[in-house]
């Protein structure tokens, strides 16, 4: 077993180094910059509009009520399911890992990745709605595979390019669902439960070399719980997500605010460390020229971008697969929910986690070391315990939060993987994927932390490449759809003369023009 894991580690390291090298990061950030430019910096220029139409419309019955169409879900359910998949271990352990490896400055680069990632995610959702279609069961199906095959593929000489990229994306999405959407999440759940709720009698029993009976039991229980929801389809996943996600996000934010509030004297030093070490990391102090620049790129910048993408998934083309099931007609409306998704995930939740770590004293701002030898897996728990120390309540709270964050991520990614599987093999066979996905949860429970995380990074990277190629190629269309919406819904001059752009297919376009938006 040990030899097998060593072989997997070696292969994964080689692939990870290739896909997450400078070329991958340049492609990622440049795509975000491009989509920001072609939309007129929509996330800033229309800030009030997208806030009003997302969180500002949260009590609008058209947003929160369940769709009359049993084959689609409400915009709020789509958001909660997408957040279920994105607000996961990346927001807790991922931020901790970024700080441990890249220093406090990694947080700054997470913000930069999120700022441009907002428009990457927006563009994915716009194209997802525009190129979606009904599957054999009458449900909406959308995602990068469809705008690659039908969008990029419609361009002269690109038919087979679009098709091949769509197939590759689907294959990578399925693999990513086993990594980021299963193994990495369950692995972090197991580590935190073992740390917060130790059971020595079970931990002392080894099933395999280094694999305890306790870890195996936790993995099996999680797999059984997930199976009861996943096998019920998207409606059951969305129903669970809309009840759990708002509660878990609010509870984590409140707990974090308390920790930061108690350590309010360290707030300004924490922000100072973020900005100072973003450009002059501790390892580069005293260095000059190329050496210092290399330390910045390899340290805070690389880890900030990578963990930012791991957290909010902007650029992966993942969340668009659930956003495409929304009952809305307007591509831009769902695109705005995509902006809000990244905003909540990274700008709010990840920043809160970072400040909890940087203000609590568990991370030394001067030396970049952790107190008491805490690792990325336990750093946040230690930070909460610095305030909620009685009965180890802080660590237990983080363990419960980690369970909810990670478990809902598993549910969301099961839908992503199922949609990718559906594209390749048809909707009737998706139950096969779901069973395999459930079994990988048990594997995640027994993998080493670094391997589970690194495999996830690799699959994310390979999923990212075809998606970003599609976004760049279709950026003029995103600009056209955005301008069409702004003219009709924001400026409104001569609206009757401007035909809305709902779908690329004439028949679907006509049907969307006739139906009343749920």
Describe this structure in words.
The chain is an all-alpha fold. The protein has a single domain, classed as Amino acid/polyamine transporter I (Up-down Bundle). Helix content is 73%, strand content 2%. It has 23 helices and four strands. The strands form two sheets. It has a two-stranded antiparallel sheet with strand order 1-2. Strands 3-4 form a two-stranded antiparallel ribbon. β3 (206-208) and β4 (211-212) form a beta hairpin. α7 (89-102) runs antiparallel to α15 and α13 packs parallel to α17. It is globular and about 70 Å long. Mean pLDDT is 79; it is low at 283-296.
Features:
two-stranded antiparallel ribbon; 518 residues; two-stranded antiparallel sheet; mainly alpha; Amino acid/polyamine transporter I; 2% strand; 23 helices; single chain
């Amino acid at each position: 077993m040990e030899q097998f894991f060593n072989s997997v580690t070696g292969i994964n390291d080689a692939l990870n180094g290739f896909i997450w090298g400078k070329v991958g990061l340049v492609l990622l950030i440049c795509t975000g910059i491009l989509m920001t430019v072609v939309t007129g910096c929509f996330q800033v220029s229309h800030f009030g509009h997208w806030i009003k139409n997302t969180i500002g419309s949260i009590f609008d019955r058209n947003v929160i009520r369940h769709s009359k169409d049993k084959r689609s879900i409400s915009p709020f359910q789509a958001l909660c399911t997408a957040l279920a998949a994105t607000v996961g271990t990346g927001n807790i352990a991922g931020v901790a890992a970024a700080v441990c490896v890249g220093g406090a400055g990694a947080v700054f680069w997470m913000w930069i990745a999120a700022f441009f990632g907002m428009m990457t995610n927006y563009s994915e959702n716009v194209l997802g709605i525009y190129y979606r279609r009904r599957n054999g069961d009458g449900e909406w199906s959308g995602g990068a595979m469809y705008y690659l095959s039908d969008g990029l593929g419609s361009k002269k000489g690109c038919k087979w390019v679009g098709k091949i990229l769509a197939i590759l994306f689907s294959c990578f999405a399925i693999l990513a669902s086993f990594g980021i959407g299963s193994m990495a999440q369950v692995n972090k759940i197991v580590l935190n439960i073992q740390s917060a709720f130790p059971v020595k009698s079970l931990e002392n029993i080894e099933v395999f070399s280094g694999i305890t009976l306790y870890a195996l039991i936790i993995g099996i229980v999680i797999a059984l719980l997930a199976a009861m929801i996943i096998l019920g389809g998207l409606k059951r996943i969305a129903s669970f997500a809309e009840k759990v996600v708002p509660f878990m996000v609010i509870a984590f934010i409140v707990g974090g605010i308390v920790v930061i509030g108690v350590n309010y004297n360290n707030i300004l030093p924490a922000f100072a460390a973020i900005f100072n070490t973003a450009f002059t990391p501790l390892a580069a102090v005293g260095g000059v020229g190329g050496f210092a620049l290399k330390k910045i790129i390899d340290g805070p910048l690389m880890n900030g971008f990578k963990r930012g993408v791991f957290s909010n998934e902007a650029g992966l083309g993942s969340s668009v697969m659930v956003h495409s099931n929304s009952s809305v007609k307007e591509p831009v409306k769902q695109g705005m929910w995509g902006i809000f998704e990244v905003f909540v995930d990274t700008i709010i939740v990840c920043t809160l986690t970072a400040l909890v770590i940087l203000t609590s004293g568990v991370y030394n701002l001067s030396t970049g070391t952790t107190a008491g030898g805490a690792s990325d897996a336990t750093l946040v728990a230690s930070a909460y315990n610095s305030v909620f120390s009685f009965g180890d309540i802080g660590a237990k709270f983080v363990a419960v939060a980690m369970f909810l964050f990670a478990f809902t991520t598993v549910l969301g990614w099961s839908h992503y993987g199922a949609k990718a599987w559906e594209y390749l093999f048809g909707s009737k066979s998706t139950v096969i994927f779901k069973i395999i996905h459930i079994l990988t949860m048990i594997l995640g429970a027994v993998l080493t932390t670094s391997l589970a995380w690194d495999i996830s990074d690799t699959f994310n990277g390979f999923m990212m490449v075809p998606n970003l190629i599609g976004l760049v190629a279709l950026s003029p269309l995103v600009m056209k759809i955005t301008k069409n919406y702004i003219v009709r819904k924001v400026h409104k001059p001569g609206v009757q003369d401007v035909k809305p752009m709902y779908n690329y297919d004439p028949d679907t376009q006509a049907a969307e023009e006739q139906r009343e938006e749920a």
